[in-house]
Design brief:
Blueprint lengths: L3 H17 L6 E5 L6 E5 L5 H10 L2 E10 L2 E12 L2 E10 L8
Parallel strand pairs: 2-5
Antiparallel strand pairs: 1-2, 3-4, 4-5
Length: about 100
């Protein structure tokens, strides 16, 4: 069973992040039910949104897995950081552009 104080600390950290940095790009957020952790998904078509979070949170961005979505190959880019002692993962998924193949 989830510990309400664990979720409360993550919710408080998210509230503080959004109140202190209202200019950050909009994201969908979830809060871990076992550990105090935040997961955000930035809905954008460039890395700029993810980099805006990195500027505030610090941390490292890395390229993650690729997957198919609606006939397009997408690649996840992930920021892992810590905000107010709460681990944060922010993700943006971008299309992988097909390289032209020489005939």
């Amino acid at each position: 069973m989830a510990n309400n104080s664990t979720q409360l600390s993550a919710a408080t950290a998210l509230t503080q992040l959004l109140m202190e940095h209202p200019d950050l790009p909009e994201a969908g957020w979830s809060i871990g039910s076992v550990m105090a952790e935040l997961r955000g998904f930035v809905h954008t078509d460039s890395l700029a949104g993810l980099l805006a979070y990195q500027e505030v949170l610090g941390g490292d961005v890395h390229v993650a897995n690729c997957y198919e979505h609606l006939g397009r190959t997408m690649r996840r880019h992930v920021l892992n950081a810590v905000w107010r002692d709460v681990p944060v993962e922010v993700v943006v998924a971008l299309p992988v552009h097909a390289e032209a193949v020489a005939a």
